[in-house]
Amino acid sequence: MTMIQTDIKKLIGYGVQRGLVPEEDVVYTANKLLELFGLEELECVCSADKEASCVPESELEAILGRMCDYAFEKGLIAENSVTYRDLFDTKVMGLLVPRPSEVIGKFKELYAQSPQAATDYYYKLSKDSDYIRRYRIVKDMKWVSPTKYGDLDITVNLSKPEKDPKAIAAAKNAKQSGYPKCLLCRENEGYAGRINHPARQNHRIIPVTINGSRWGFQYSPYVYYNEHCIVFNYEHIPMKIEHDTFCKLFDFVKQFPHYFVGSNADLPIVGGSILSHDHFQGGHYEFAMAKAPVERSFTVAGFEDVEAGVVNWPMSVLRLRGADTDRIIGLADVILEKWREYTDEAAFVYAYTEGEPHNTITPIARKRDGVYELDLVLRNNITTEEHPLGVYHPHGKLHHIKKENIGLIEVMGLAVLPARLKDEMAQLKKAILAGEDLRGNETLEKHADWVEEFMPRYETIDASNIDQIIQKEIGLVFMEVLEDAGVYKRTPEGQEALDRFLRSL
To answer: What is the pTM of this model?
Structure first.
């Protein structure tokens, strides 16, 4: 028996073990895989076959890797590159995943027992199907950085595969398709993908009704945190923060009370990466911002029954709490409506310049200790000559670490940093220990000011503590990033300006 035949049997064994392939579907699945690889036969495909009966999760990457090697040798894929291999191995895994109707049926059956039982099943399926590529996720660098605002989560994202130059060139020349319209559209379910769009044959979506409209529930393939989910409108419509947004967030939390859910803002710069499709992000995780305490309370006339306070956080966060979500939503409406039109020149807060709106909100909902909470993060996207990427955006001196938009995930206290930092951190370690001049290094010169600033704070920097120091200082940069993104600064003047806004409600 050839290696490819052995791997087909192993993959089927993997599928049986993890409940992807029922016993009744073993022969059928084997034949579909033979067809895909252009093979005509396979010895004994019963799941009890010793060779295939125990395939550890850790072997999946190797099995799929050998299958891609074989596919390239036989001309089944055009290029032996990450892009083409990802398209092919997703096609392979798609043959093992149950139809959407079966997955939805199982989810509903388990949901009747408990929402968590349903999400536990679905999350496991998303990992076992290789939709979430666990072997890539584990390569992400992760650590926790203590700060005066609590422990911030830091990740250097390595799980998104970098596109190879040939694939980038091919994508430019490829026919532009409007199907699916974006990466969030429901039409991605089962889609074969193309050079400029990932394959999703192994992807399944759970339909949910939120506030009377049809939405889809899925997990992020890059899981930045535990059970990182995406909830998206079935219609490809732009994001908008409004009354219905608050209603939808709480409706989702009521259906999945073990999850938080939040929305990116609806303006460029402060709105995250996808504004063209209305969606939320949630998950089973408690972020640093959620743990941050309320440092002072305020009351809005007519809403005395809703607890309201300013959160001790680098960004400007108002937390509303209560048992009645309608009352929380009512107060959130008042705050949003006022904030949209609010200008305070002394605090450099402008609702509009030349007719362009600047004020919006990043909202996050959760249920905690039997009480509903809504965090409203005040956002403003104004730009100036000094800060062309945004006044309330990471300032230029921090771009060597973080230049990208501060979306929902960062707002809550998790830094998603670019993959380049992995190599740069390793190079930086060597250079600091060797006493090299960073300004003479093309890659590291952008870090020179920062290193010169933090090095005097340590009596000794050597091989025993250099890694911890670099991680700690990156964490402090991220804290500063969040402070830059905060509309009202953590100074007496800044907090007085915030209080002026609160008094205007």
So the answer is: 0.93
